[in-house]
Design brief:
little secondary structure; three-stranded antiparallel beta sheet; two-stranded antiparallel ribbon; 1 helix; globular; binds iron/sulfur cluster
């Protein structure tokens, strides 16, 4: 019965989990692999979400994300402190 609401009073869709909350700089719906930007839709929960929010099901977007890039750099790096 008790709907969760955004600070502005808008109702948060029931489909969204309890862990749905305000996101942070690194993780938020707008950079989540489930987010459909054109309609602000979450394909994981099947509900409209806010770009700046976040839930525990967050996953990185596939392809070309900064996470992938830094991971490959770490894998091939390690030359600091190496031979000279
Ligand atoms: S899975 Fe969670 S973090 Fe990702 S778009 Fe949906 S509500 Fe946002």
């Amino acid at each position: 019965m008790s709907h969760k609401t955004y600070p502005n009073g808008e109702i948060i869709p029931d489909q969204l989990p309890n862990a749905y909350r305000v996101g942070n700089a690194n993780k938020k719906c707008s950079n989540c692999g489930f987010f459909v930007a054109v309609s602000s839709y979450c394909s994981k929960w099947g509900a409209i979400v806010k770009a700046g929010y976040l839930c525990n099901a967050w996953k990185p977007m596939e392809g070309g994300s900064s996470n992938v890039r830094s991971a490959s750099r770490a894998a091939s790096g390690g030359s600091y402190g190496g031979g000279y």
